[in-house]
Amino acid sequence: MKKPTSIKLERAEAIDKPGADSVTAITSATPAEHELIVRNQRFDRNHRTPRWWHSNDPVATAWYNSVSASLPRGEAFFIDTMRMFRDQVPPKIAAEMKAFTTQEINHTREHVAFNRLVADHGYNVESIDQGIQSMLALTEGRPKEFNLAITIALEHFAAMISHHLLADPRYLEGADPIAADIWRWHATEEIEHKGITYDVWLYATKDWSRWKRYRVKTMIAMLITKKYFGNRIRDAIGLLEQDGFSRSKAKWKLYAFLWWKPGMMRRMFFEWAKILMPGYHPWNLDDRELINKADSPYADAVLPAE
Q: What is the pTM for the complete model shown?
């Protein structure tokens, strides 16, 4: 395994000022001493996860499989979007963008491998990938700031899920140990880089009025969260149908899993709503202690770097 590399940034002194029409004086909420660490984890390719790898529970397994199947193409979109803004940000922010890109490339690689294991159990996950491709095709020809706002919304959703996965061990309790390590590792880096897309957004929209910036960000957050979350439910139900569940039973069990027990979606609702508030920044919630709590070499799971 390659030794982790880190990038430490001095935060911009001035990005946005409440009550002002141009970006001139607000400090980013990203902690000044915060570091991004690139962990080039490669999990055991020879390990075969069980079909119902999460607690022998087809419902929990279907939900996480649905999310995983959506990630490779989605993260490629995030990378492509961020690269459009490399010349619009200060060098230190550009360096952090590079670390973000490397983290996302690593996530894509590992989830592609994980999705192959899911497919090996006979699940059709290709249709999920195609659905993501169709959704992202709608962004073609749109302003790059539009695509960045989509990235912000989805990274906000990812950061919330990651917070709960690391803060409450019950969410991965009973899961296959290698699969659980993949999700914890991914969650660690999602929390770690959760502020970079928003910091880039503030630079990219520095000539916009505060009202325009708020309106575009919130409208896209509502639309894309509804679309993405709805598709994840649809695809998880489809995976349960492949396990022999009727559509009505699959829907009932999945909703119970998401909203009742363990109920992650119910617990996340007010956290998600913070993106709709004036003054929103991902690092308004400083949960760096979860990074330290979860960060480890994952020695039992890692293979030597190729």
A: 0.87
